[in-house]
Amino acid sequence: MRNLMKISTLAILILTLPMAALADLSGTKTLSANTALSLDTGTTSSSGGDLLWSGTSLTPQGSATAINIGALGSTGFAAMSQATLSVFPGYSNSAIAASTLVVNDVFAVKTNGGHYAAVLVTALSGTSITLQFTTFGATAAGSAPAITQVLNNYGLVPAGFSNSGIAQGALFIIKGSGLADPNAQAVLQSSASGLPLTLNGASIKVTVNGTTTTPALYYAIAAQLAAVLPSNTPIGTAQVTVTYNNQTSAPFSFQVVQSAVGFDSYYGAGSGLGVATNSATGALYNYANAIPLGTQITLWGSGLGADPARDTTFSTANLANIKGLGHVYVGGVDAAIGYQGPSGYPGLNQVNITIPTSATLGCNVSLVGVTTSGVPTNSLTLPIGTGACSDSQFGTIGTQLNNLSGLTSLNSGALILALETSPATSGSGTQVTDTAIGSFQHISYNGSTYGAAAAGSVSLGGCIVNQIVNSTSTVTTTTTGLDAGTITVTGPSGNATLTAFSAIPGYYLAQLATGFIPTSGGTFTFQNGSGGKDVGPFKPSPSIVFSNPVLTWTNQAAAATVTRSAGLPITWTGGSSGTFVYIGGSSSATVGGQSVSASFTCFVPVSPAQFTVPSYILAALPAGTGGVTVGNYTNYQSFSATGLDNGAALGFVAYEINSTYN
Fold it and tell me: pLDDT tens for residues 416-445?
């Protein structure tokens, strides 16, 4: 053990507990004719409220106003935020006729209480309508607490996945509504004298097989509680309840396990850049200050296992290894673990590892741990190198990423050439398409940053996983299209013009003639003349070079059935020296009544002509159906233009097959 207690660093790290800023009221109501719904309280009545359903129309009441956005479905509904709803024009108190409503319609409402609400039509039959709603910043008056999620405080892996359990002694969060005093602030409690069992009127009970424990609380606000699961909580299926204002929530189920580690992430999203400090100095690493090979670092998180001496109170006594982790892989290389155990703070663990001298250099080198029972942690990345990190194949450097990561909005441009072979849309066989794509967008990261949203990046040699439940993500974005003028692409067989989509501003597309991108490769150049209203001329005009011959995936049949515990071997031929291969896949299933899906992404050098997707990566995907894609990407070509924060061009050859994951 080396220098375990960097108190000033730990005080900062523990403040990265993810917190919800507002208490949002969510629910589903079925309205019969002449029923009013208050979106501020979630209650129904015969009059008043914010919306009155007459059986033939839906009419805003009082000062409330509404606008029908369109049939965006559950995905569009989930993407709505207060920031998104506030910019829609055309709010009105006019009635919305039932004849204009369909299932999956989403409409926005300004309530009588001054809140914004997103409303989804989930059923419409005769004179009855069923509405799902989220009112931002509202809490049901006098209603019982409601629990919607239980998550590891750092990993944030949603229920339904093999690595979503909460370990004995872990720091975890409960999300929901009405959980504590609605006026309470997220003030972190000191564990020096012991964390409280009741805070801001809230208390928690966890029951497993007839045994009940009471977690101590770090903070309590109406939308979220952070607590430490007592180490003597039995392993098994738990029922948790929250009591506030003499009312107790309905029980919510989750799994208590011996160990399930979640590592802390730089932007609090459970993915992307990981939090790593120098074990000797406590210095925090980032893109501009990368980790040299051979350095001992400390990773922070929770879930190694039971630590009864620190369930409620800070203590530096008996800081012994818990040994919940069997491996920590950095860029796919097994790193030596020097220490894994308590930090001193309740629920907060630290893991000291040495960066392998054979690890890949890059800005987003993959990081994943595996417990002694084979359960993977959340997927993160680390910047490895000296000074500012660099991913030359992707055209990125650490100083650029550091500058972009803190932005809450970004003007981004992408130019892509694709030669894709995929399963036919009908019948058997495959279809081959040649496509040119341009996308120019102003992206706003609602309540977040580019660094939190750009969590899908990984340096060469590694793999990462993204896990989703019910088509929702922890980071939502709003995009506005940018006009980049007339875009053309010129190749060995001629040129083509990309057509701007009026329905999707900022998006340009050309379905190219078969053979426009030949299997013998070639050079292709994008241009946009004098530019457009929002984006100026490309400087320089980016050129994409495909190899001769293009890459061929040689063992496609091996991916038709994926045995997750065995890993997935991939082989190929072709592709230019110095380029890289993308290997990706996804799987979906229904678990416990929820739709869960996960995807993996690997980037590897082309030269070995083979790679095996590790079993610990596949273990984070559900057993279900999906697909596997293998492609050869050209190296990214950066370009600049007035009106853009960043621009990149690339080409790829890709092969996709349908897969079953066992």
Answer: 999 998 886 666 677 889 999 999 999 886
CA dist., res. 129 & res. 56, Å (int): 10
DSSP H or E stretch at residue 291: none
Nearest-angstrom CA–CA distance, 373 and 28: 40
Amino acid residing at 576: S
DSSP state of 577: T
The alpha carbon of residue 109 and the mean position of all alpha carbons in its chain are separated, in whole angstroms, by 27
Among residues 322, 364, 340, 376, which one has the least CA distance to residue 152? 376
Together in a domain, 55 and 121: yes
C-alpha to C-alpha distance for 289 and 587, rounded to whole angstroms:
36
Q: Which residue segment(s) compose the domain that 235 sits in? A: 146-257
In the predicted model, what is the mean pLDDT of the chain?
A: 88
Q: How does pLDDT run across 454-473, given as a tens digit for each residue?
A: 556 899 999 999 887 654 44
The angle formed by the CA atoms of residues 353, 354 and 355, to the nearest 5 degrees, is 115
Residue of 564, 582, 563 whose CA lies nearest to 620: 564
Sheet holding 610-613, edge to edge: 552-553, 568-573, 610-613
Strand 57-60 to 96-97 pairing:
antiparallel
Mark whether 201 and 98 lie in a shared domain: no
pLDDT of 20 > 70? The answer is no
Mean pLDDT of 211-224: 96
pLDDT in tens, 302-360: 999 999 999 999 999 988 889 899 999 999 999 999 999 999 999 999 999 999 999 99
* Percentage of the chain modeled with pLDDT above 90: 65
Total domains in the chain come to 3
CATH number at 233 reads 2.60.40.10
Asked if residue 288 lies in contact with residue 282, where contact means CB atoms within 8 angstroms, the answer is no
The amino acid present at 266, given as its one-letter code, is: Y
Give a yes or no: residue 512 inside a domain.
yes
Q: Are 130 and 28 in contact (CB under 8 A)?
A: yes
Strand, coil or helix: what is 559? helix
Q: What is the DSSP secondary structure assignment for residue 377, as one 8-state letter?
A: -
Q: Which amino acid, one-letter code, is at 553?
A: W
Q: Is the pTM of the predicted complex or chain greater than 0.70?
A: yes
The total of other beta-carbon atoms located within 10 Å of residue 648's CB is 17
